[in-house]
Amino acid sequence: MSAVTQPVSSRPILRATRCVLRVLIAALFLFAAVTKLFDPSSFAQQIANYQLTPWPATAALSVFLPALELCVGICLLLGRWESGALVWVAILLAIFSGALLSAIVRGLSIDCGCFGRSVENTGTLWPLIRNLALLAVTGFLWFSRKNK
User: What is the pLDDT of residue 1?
Assistant: First the structure.
């Protein structure tokens, strides 16, 4: 059996790499969620700075997005429902990247709001690059997972 067709479980380096990357993405999403859950009004203002949603939607998103990030982070950390969690990670990163790209194109000078008020002055370009890199890692995790 070639190395390409061997299951993930029989390739320890790949298995370890997947585990480390999964835990790192989980930690990132958990950190982002917790920082925003503690201060939803500040996060709502950061969402409003993008000028993409009306205030009622912004207020709802300021609570819903961190809760979703928390669920996704927990699932990835525990290794439960990994496929579903990876799909949500990809969806969230694509939406966040679209919002960042929109802000860049419109010339908005705002913080990304990715980590609430705990990490400020990040701008929009570097977070966009980071999100695209995370999307690539998510793709790697998706395509290298065990088929169940």
Answer: 47
Distances from the Cα of 49 to the Cα of 45, 57, 65, angstroms: 6, 13, 16
Q: How many CB atoms lie within 10 A of CB 99?
A: 20
Among residues 60, 55, 41, 54, which one has the least CA distance to residue 113? 41
Question: Cβ(60)–Cβ(73) under 8 Å?
Answer: no
Q: How far apart are the first and last CA of the chain?
A: 20
What is the structure's pLDDT at 14?
Answer: 85
Q: Which residues contact 128 (CB under 8 A, 6 or more apart)?
A: 97, 100, 101, 104
d(CA 114, CA 8): 32
Which two tokens mark 128? 């966009």
Structure token digits, residue 77: 């950390």
What's residue 91's pLDDT?
96
| C-alpha to C-alpha distance for 52 and 65, rounded to whole angstroms | 15
**Prediction pTM value:** 0.85
